Amino acid sequence: MGQNANSQGALPPLPLPGTPVTPTTGDGVPGIMNTILTPGGAPQAAPAGASGHYEFDEAGFNSVLTDINTILNKIAAARSAALPMVQVLPMGDEPSSHHAADGVNNSGKSYMKHNDELRVHFEGLRDSLTKARDDYLAQEQHAAGSINKIQGNM
Fold it and tell me: What is the rounded distance in angstroms from the CA atom of residue 102 to the CA atom of residue 86?
């Protein structure tokens, strides 16, 4: 009694607002949301009176897509490694063995469902970002072609 949670080695305090934070997935994979929201690790400031903008960075997008593919590969590997969790057979033919096997199999099914939900989420994120990148690059190419055509007519 008399000691607070921080003096006992609990979680560190949250960073002050505006402090850049670079989360990771815990195994060295960079935090993809930080890359998307703050390209280059620093917030993009809008000029006074402007509506603001984000600078497109194709290399940054590609880096995020690589990170997502790495995460998807790890999700697939975790799913393969977890298959035995849904294939447990009872050791005997009595109720307690069946109950124990059913408990493990149900837990495995729950994990597989969670794994599938993660996969669907990250596949959707990857597909959305790929489409956004490709659409932007197509618009850039169209705009560059239009400018070249106008300059050729001058």
Answer: 9
Which of 4-18, 35-49, 73-87, 128-142: highest mean pLDDT? 73-87
Counting every residue, how long is the chain?
154
Q: Determine the Cα–Cα distance for residues 65 and 129; give it in Å rounded to an integer.
A: 7
Q: Tokens 């850049």 identify what position?
A: 20
pTM of the model: 0.58
**Residue range 24-38, pLDDT digits in tens:** 444 444 444 444 444
Distance CA 120, CA 36 (A): 19
Running DSSP on this structure, what letter comes out for residue 61?
Answer: H
CATH superfamily of this structure's domain 25-39+58-152? HP0062-like domain (1.10.287.850)
If we measure between CA atoms, which residue out of 63, 68, 83 comes closest to residue 120?
68
The sign of the dihedral angle between the CA atoms of 109, 111, 116, 121 is positive
Sequence spans of domains, the chain: 25-39+58-152
Across the chain, mean pLDDT equals: 76
